[in-house]
Amino acid sequence: MIQALSGDVAFLQAIRDLKFDGFIHSIFSKTVNIKCRESGELYNLACNRLDNAPNSLIIDINCFSNNHLELNDQVFIQKSTLSIDNKMVIRLEDVKGWECSLPCYPLNEQRLIYNLAIMKGYIEFNGKSGGMKKDSQTRNPFEVEMAKMLEERSYSLLCSLVNNNESEAVNHALSLIGLGPGLTPSGDDYLTGLMTTFQLLNCPCYSLKEFCERVILKAKHLTNEISYMTLKMASVGKVRESIVHLLCLAMYGEEKELIKALQHVLQIGSSSGTDISLGLVSGLETILKISSTRRNIHVNH
Questions:
Q1: Residue 153 is inside which H or E element, if any?
Q2: pTM for the model
Q3: Eight-state DSSP code of residue 3
Q4: pLDDT for the residue 297
């Protein structure tokens, strides 16, 4: 029997309320995705090396490579355990609940402005290329064209957001979904970071939440289920614990702690962590630009 260490409160509640009934959707070395039959929602079992995340349950196991799990294996509740056929039993007693809680946008933006410059410089030299960050060494024509498309579409998106053209911004965002390499494509990862910043408590640009809602309404069939679920969660401010920590430090932290948190996020996936981090930077810069424009308009009037 394997002990569950911590879990998203929404997942734990679904287990208790729905008498969870599902099946294995996909299997990776560090995670197993489970689909709930009743809700159609994806949930996630994660090894003890990962941090907390929405709809996720961290269990005391190093990896899933040697557990003989297969796609469509049945997942069900039995007493105080979550069972996968006769292959794995997860003990749910004494599991620690976790809930994503984004920080408040700062009243004084000077620390944020300073920290964004640090993040951009660090990502430039240490981020993983091949997604939103250009690979200056590649001569592969496909990769060169993909990088160009990601750059042009993300730039157009940010311009539309700053200019308050929401319909145009939604179209540019949709053109990024499913674009780029990886299980969670680079465009999706970038939007995950971007939309997360728009959900910050006391965010001065409330209309950006509506932008996120409109994107998610049309996004489902533009990418795979796993990536869509990540985008859907980010659009309502639910992301993994390491991203929340990075956001906190971007707005309020000192340089040493900020770099450490950024390093942790950059390690996510192949280029996913870099793409998410660039999305966070772009989102925070967008909020700063819109806020500055509004203040100037107010002063001039």
A1: helix 141-162
A2: 0.94
A3: E
A4: 60
Dihedral, CA of residue 273, residue 277, residue 278 and residue 280, to nearest 10: 140
Q: Is 207 helix (H, G, I), strand (E, B) or coil?
A: helix
pLDDT tens string 21-39: 999 999 999 999 999 998 8
If DSSP states are collapsed to H, E and C, what string results for 45-82? EECCCCCCCCCEEEECCCCCCCCCCCCCCEEEEECCEE
Residue 174 identity: L
- Give the distance between the most distant pair of CA atoms in the chain: 70
Which is nearest to 260 in space by CA: 276, 241, 245?
Answer: 245
**Helix H or strand E segment including 251:** helix 241-252
Phi and psi, residue 26, nearest 5°: -160, 155
> What average pLDDT does the segment 79-90 reach?
90
- To 10 degrees, the CA torsion angle through 158, 161, 163, 166? 140
Q: Is residue 269 within 8 Å of 190, Cβ to Cβ?
A: no
For 148-187, the pLDDT digits (tens) are 999 999 999 999 999 999 999 999 999 999 999 778 999 9
CA distance 44 to 28: 11
- Which phi and psi (to 5°) does residue 77 adopt? -95, 135
Question: Are the beta carbons of 15 and 51 closer than 8 angstroms?
Answer: no
Residue 4, strand partner residues: 59
For the segment 239-295, what is each residue's pLDDT rounded down to a tens digit? Answer: 999 999 999 999 999 999 999 999 999 999 889 999 999 999 999 999 999 987 766
Closest CA to 25 of 35, 37, 39, 15: 35
Q: How far from chain centre, in Å, is Cα 272?
A: 9
* 99 CB burial (10 A radius; 0-12, 13-18, 19+): exposed
